[in-house]
């Protein structure tokens, strides 16, 4: 193990100061909409890598380039990048109108009294199928606003239910950025991580659903939402879900989804060949920044590890968190702190991965447990920070429809992230690890 050197962590601090500091200035001082997401995260990481390259004069620049190249020369990194891009093609092919079809189908089928519960369930399914919480919130929030307007349910409760369901799927989906990053970073099969995660996320979702139903039965409602829908377009998502749960190779699963989606979209006339190819390109392009972040973080972490930064951090963690249970909590809080700083759960996982990998070895935490902890705790914190993409997109969607809403109206009724945290702590401290 490298000699402990706390100053080697300076690049991480530089990144956090640049990204978090500028984000706060843009969002709350300059009042720029989506201020945090106007910060060029790639530039912030480049600045951090520059600092890492300036450090440690005993190592030549060419040697530092070799160290960074070694950090990238990992099967898991290449696999993660390829899955990101393939998932982008899948989302580009199937489009997002099928998500709306699921929502309107269930709202037409189920009594209005259960409308908010339907929003939560639909958001869970759509996010699990699409692998994106932000995309789910973008699609379903306008429907949530319509449910509130037509039925009399509290707007904040409707929106919070969509956000909670979106975070459920983001945590469990086989094609979610967070799942891909956590599994490949911890060298864990997606099926194993899903099984570990399911028994943490599912009870939290059930309790959330019960709370929503209790509040729903205490609300006087009238009217219902009706809209056209096309369930045929949901088939590719169903195939992806079944294939993922069955443990089929993720590339094969995504290929099946792409082929099925292409056939259905062309046969139904929903999209032409040219538009389909363009959509594929757009889907892949949407993954470029995430791929570049993964590359830059891997390079930066290789230098930090070489300089002894991870040894210093692990030493602090060991002094603070004792035993296997303490190690699991420390791992969760580590990725949570990264998420608070970056407001991006995928980036938080990518940054925490190498440290968590060494923590797993030191504390005797299994790969699938580590991947589950990283994904779950990042979703907990990402779901509740007022400046997170999920919260900002939800508020923006509501405001664009002519309604006024703030994060502090949504937070008190944002039940799922809180239930997920409680469920996670129960599985760490009460339920035996071998379960």
What does this structure look like?
It contains 21 helices and no strands. It is an all-alpha fold. Helix 6 runs parallel beside helix 8. It is globular, with a radius of gyration of 22 Å. The two termini are 32 Å apart. The mean pLDDT is 82.
Q: Give the proportion of residues in helices.
A: over 70%
Q: Measure the end-to-end span.
A: 32 Å
Shape: globular
What portion of the residues fall into strands of 2 or more residues?
Answer: under 5%
Could you spell the SSE succession in H and E letters? Answer: HHHHHHHHHHHHHHHHHHHHH
Overall strand count: 0
Taking pLDDT < 50 over at least 5 consecutive residues as the criterion, the unreliable ranges are none
Query: How many H/I helices?
Result: 21
Class derived from helix and strand content:
mainly alpha
Mind describing the biggest β-sheet?
none
The average pLDDT is 82
Over the alpha carbons, how many angstroms does the gyration radius reach?
Answer: 22 Å
Task: List descriptors.
mainly alpha; 435 residues; 0% strand; globular
In terms of topology, how is this protein built?
Layout: H1 10-29, H2 41-54, H3 61-72, H4 75-94, H5 97-109, H6 115-130, H7 133-151, H8 155-172, H9 177-185, H10 190-217, H11 235-246, H12 250-267, H13 273-285, H14 288-307, H15 309-320, H16 323-342, H17 345-363, H18 367-384, H19 389-400, H20 407-410, H21 415-429
Helix pairs in contact: 1-2, 2-14, 3-14, 4-9, 4-12, 4-13, 4-14, 5-6, 5-7, 6-7, 6-8, 6-10, 6-11, 7-8, 7-19, 8-10, 8-18, 9-17, 9-18, 10-18, 10-21, 11-12, 14-17, 16-17, 16-18, 17-18, 18-21
